[in-house]
Amino acid sequence: MVATIGAVALTLTLVMSGCGTAPSQSQAAGRGTDTAGGGQATQSPAAPSPTPDPVVMTPSVADGATGVKVDTHVSVKAANGTLDKVSLSYRGKDRDGTKKTVQVKGEINKDKSAWTAAEFLDPGAQYNLAMSGTSIEGADATSTSTFTTHELSLDQQVFPSIYPLSDTTVGTGMPVILKFDLPVKDKKSFEKHLQVTSSPKQIGSWHWYSPTEVHYRPKSYWRPGTKVSVSADLNGVPAGNGLYGQESRSASFTIGRAVVVKVNIPKKTTKV
Question: pLDDT tens digits for 235-265?
Fold first, then answer.
């Protein structure tokens, strides 16, 4: 009887062992990727996000360049983004010999892809160029560079003088007179950088009397009370024969009342 009970118990144990839950497909697959030590399945790490491309700001004059000609218009172009600010400057001296920082004027275009200087350069100066921009993805960036212009002797620099002087009142027949200390051969280049504006507006033109003197006259006499402004933006402009303009000048003056004197020589009379 005891043997019979033992046999039944053994049979029940075998039956219960066969009734366990079968592993699912996912579990079976998981076992297939277990490590030899029986650990959990390993997963591949997520790929890192790609680094966004920065804005690239490229000046027309290379960093560290030397002997750059003074008749150079410096420019900066931006790729993969836009320009926010560009500053071009150098340490120079004013007429009293006092050192100061001279800022070169310039402008960024409408789509902010380029900046261009509005002025030429001074000789023998070290320029500092500072640029800032924003990439397409919105990342800010800054960049700097330096360069040096070529040296010019005084015999290679043309200095202008303007008459009438600023804040003076002159007659209706007074022309604008520009005189130069050295002869100008490339007159066309110089004329492109000479400007006369008047209020009220009046038509006029330039006429060269010699390589060192040019006049501007209105088509007829100036109107009384006219305000005249003269700009000779000649700094760095080629004058020909290896000469360059130096120290741009400007002046503003007023036309006074009209006084006309007519002389009749045969009759020996004068009418005012």
Answer: 999 999 999 999 899 999 999 999 888 999 9
pTM exceeds cut of 0.85 = no
Contacts of 239 (CB under 8 A, 6+ apart): 158, 180, 182, 184, 185, 186, 189, 190, 245
The beta strands (E) that lie in 16-110 are given as: 56-59, 65-68, 75-79, 81-93, 99-104, 106-108
pLDDT tens string 110-121? 999 999 999 999
Sheet strands (E) in 94-237: 99-104, 106-108, 114-117, 126-135, 140-149, 157-158, 160-163, 169-170, 176-180, 194-199, 204-210, 213-218, 227-232
Give the position of tokens 């200087």.
117
Residues in the chain: 272
